[in-house]
Design a protein that fits this description.
The structure is a homodimer of 234-residue chains.
Chain A (H helix, E strand, L loop, with lengths): L2 H16 L8 H14 L11 H7 L4 H13 L3 E2 L7 E2 L4 H25 L2 H20 L2 H18 L3 H14 L3 H5 L4 H17 L3 H22 L3
Antiparallel strand pairs in A: 1-2
Chain A binds a DNA duplex (30 and 30 nucleotides) through helix 4.
Chain lengths: 234, 234
DNA sequence: CTCTCCCGAAGTGTCGACACCTTGCGAATA
DNA sequence: TATTCGCAAGGTGTCGACACTTCGGGAGAG
């Protein structure tokens, strides 16, 4: 699992949110991906106004594909497009963070139940492999690696749920979450707690204990929320 | 609660899915609402090809607003827009039905937990009032009324969860679900089971019993799924 | 008779233009 | 000086047009 592997996960994150929308060609989608990345990674600040004419110049296109890109961004709740007014990068406040974490906690609880019901033993071994990588990252204090490998673990779980709609919704939520999620893991002591939870989760999978897996999975998400809440930042 | 009240709920259903998108004026949105209604109510069959040029003629506009409307429909998973190909009304298969019910069950479980935690006693009394209307509909065998009052009950619950993101996602799911949900309730005996579950749910609210409320709420959704599954129709 | 290739009809993606609306600055007024 | 009104600049929503792609049928080869 090299640094290149981490880079792949980064691409994958944005890719999966795309699925079900336009093809990956088309100007609109290219612009969408570019802007989505900028927003998620914080280069475009909340509240920043996005001007369709200016974007059209920047990407050397007309305003039509830009408009469509803005609609795609709105669908991911990254941009707000008020009627007849300038679109702007959607703000993130503490309330929205809480709301998203609540939803995510519930849905990952569901994922865990479905994994218990549907994954093969080999697939659960695969999850354990991910978990080992996480433990290793934590031991080395590699927050960046931990962050993205965690994304990988989550994606793997979601895929094992055998519920495509669920996967799509989670990746959409994930896109939004990555605007503030890094805050959670950079707090001292978080990594070790998180590692312990992951281990408990994988064990619950191996024991085919659906209620326990769901509870651990959910508390894992909520622990992340409480960390952000306590830090007071957003 | 007259027939007009039912009609209002119908509008509300489609309205709430709109929120967060374009304003309610704008041609694109008008076209979106019109087509969404047609699809949800079954006048536009799954697989039916939608031609942007023809729609433009029908609504006396250019193709630009039509294209945007199609993107909005795609966001609600009502239409599939393959790149460079004709868009068509998205098909519904048994797998997708299962996936959506699984998600909805989980999210309504969350709603119930949040209602227990956040709703006032008066608000819970309000839910009991809805429940009484449902019981009345069931006794009279009024499937149509029951169907839409059920939507009202669900919306009321969602609103009490004090989680706007959750509300938005549920109403989006609800839009999709209404393409096949009516199948569930028209099965014999369903209404009475459903009424009993609603009563247990409201009682759990009154007792502030979060785990019970969540479990009942979820099983209520899943029972609907199993009814469709057994009927074999889609 | 079947299969392949080609071509025309039709549809999509993109473009530049135009009218209307919003917004912020500055002039006119009290 | 503070406040209101009006206007100009800039932006959005919509339009009609054009090139490229896809799809289906029909001609021609085997």
């Amino acid at each position: 699992m090299t640094e290149a592997g981490v880079e792949d996960l980064r691409k994958e994150l944005l890719f999966s949110a795309l699925r079900g929308s336009d093809g990956d060609s088309s100007l609109a989608f290219t612009i969408f991906r570019e802007l989505a990345t900028s927003i998620v990674e914080g280069r475009l600040r909340p509240g920043h106004e996005v001007n369709s004419a200016e974007l059209a110049r920047r990407f050397s296109t007309s305003r039509t594909p830009v408009r469509e890109a803005l609609l795609l961004l709105e669908r991911e709740s990254l941009v707000i497009v008020p009627p007849r007014r300038r679109p702007y990068v959607s703000p993130v406040d503490m309330r929205q963070v809480r709301e998203i974490y609540e939803i995510r906690g519930s849905l990952y609880g569901l994922v865990s139940e479905l994994v218990v019901a549907r994954a093969t033993d080999e697939e659960i071994d695969g999850l354990r492999a991910w978990q080992k990588v996480l433990a290793d990252d934590a031991e080395r204090g590699d927050v960046h690696g931990y962050f993205w490998h965690n994304v990988g673990f989550r994606n793997a779980e979601a895929s094992l749920s055998q519920n495509g709609e669920l996967q799509r919704r989670l990746s959409s939520l994930g896109l939004q979450m990555h605007r503030f999620r890094h805050l959670s893991l950079s707090l001292p002591g978080r990594l070790l707690h998180s590692v312990a939870d992951h281990e408990r989760l994988v064990n619950a999978y191996a024991d085919r204990d659906a209620p326990l897996a769901a509870a651990v999975s959910r508390s894992l998400v909520l622990r992340g929320y409480r960390a952000i809440e306590r830090s007071g930042q957003v």
